[in-house]
Amino acid sequence: MSTLDSLSLTAIPPEDEALRGPVRAFLAQAMKSVPAPVRARSWSGYDSNFSRELGRQGWLGLTLPKEYGGGGRSPFARYVVVEEFLNWGAPVGSHWIADRQSAPLILKYGTEAQKRRYIPPICRGESFFCIGMSEPNAGSDLASVKTRATRTGAGWLLNGQKIWTTNAHHSHFMIALVRTSGSAEDRQQGLSQVIVDLKLPGVTVRPIEDLAGDSHFCEVFFDNVQLAGDALIGAEGKGWEQVTAELAFERSGPERLYSSIVLFDEWLAYIRTDRALTAESLRLAGKVMAHLAPLRAMSIAVTARLAAGESPVVEAALVKDLGTAVEQLIPAAIADDLFGRDAQRVPLELLQTLNYVTQVAPSFSLRGGTRDILRGMIARGLGLR
Prior knowledge:
Layout: H1 14-17, H2 20-30, H3 36-39, H4 48-57, H5 75-88, H6 93-109, H7 112-123, E1 129-132, E2 148-152, E3 155-162, E4 173-179, E5 191-197, E6 203-208, E7 217-228, E8 232-233, H8 239-252, H9 261-271, H10 279-307, H11 313-338, H12 348-360, H13 371-381
Parallel strand pairs: 1-4
Antiparallel strand pairs: 2-3, 3-7, 4-5, 5-8, 6-7
Helix pairs in contact: 2-5, 6-7, 6-8, 8-11, 9-11, 9-12, 10-11, 11-13
């Protein structure tokens, strides 16, 4: 069966869709005074108090077992909640990675002690994780990582560097892909994953300011960082298999569709006003929706595969590649529409939102795997190479 054959239209179950109403009511109140340029940052936005409130509401760790503080719900429940967070522009960046992939990874590969230590505070919105994958000269080519964890009598000695690590300066822990044997020339062989307490001596985190003035990307240095023996997660040497499964969570969710959605909604509100609606703007709105609707269906279909316990790596890559293309289309097309109008009639908040999204849009096709890498994976999955 090909990748395309394995995705079929899937409806979100009614019991999970029922979450949408309460979440919308909460967000309508919480986000009512937040301006659009701030809301446009959403899943890169940091607000630890907001994350703790979501934990109190029971909206974090929805898919995790109740015995570890989770909701015991299906991935569809999380899909509904996340979709609402993004569409409202909620500041979810602090807990985002921990909830989306770190906790599921620990649940699947961790020891019982690791599960009980790390998962409950994630569900409460109190413990934040970052991803230690990319390195200088090894961005999307994860198999060539050089950061090394060497076994010692006390555990593991960690040395190396990670880069483009989202929210590392706000995180408590990192799950890092490291080399525990061999060399970079050995590619996938000898890779493992370790949990790093970012407060340990020898860890240095340096934020990187981007074009938009944000500093959510970081570089992280490890200089003889002593990790305990239980820092290893999963089996030694199985890091490549584990990180590949982890990326299916990162690449397939609503965040790969809605990074520009606050801008799109602000523009829709504007063109609905008197004298702002044109035939060209109608065509643009239709074009964007014609892309978003099937992509959302694909994303939900991948969620169904995840709910079945599968690891739809290629399908997730397909959603991510097509989704980021639409996310980049939105600011470019809206800019074309607005620059042909009388600037005095365009709301300042809309222009500010457009400015921000335009500046960060190039990163959409980089984070979570570059376009060329993803298309290579898709081609192999379809038997084209």
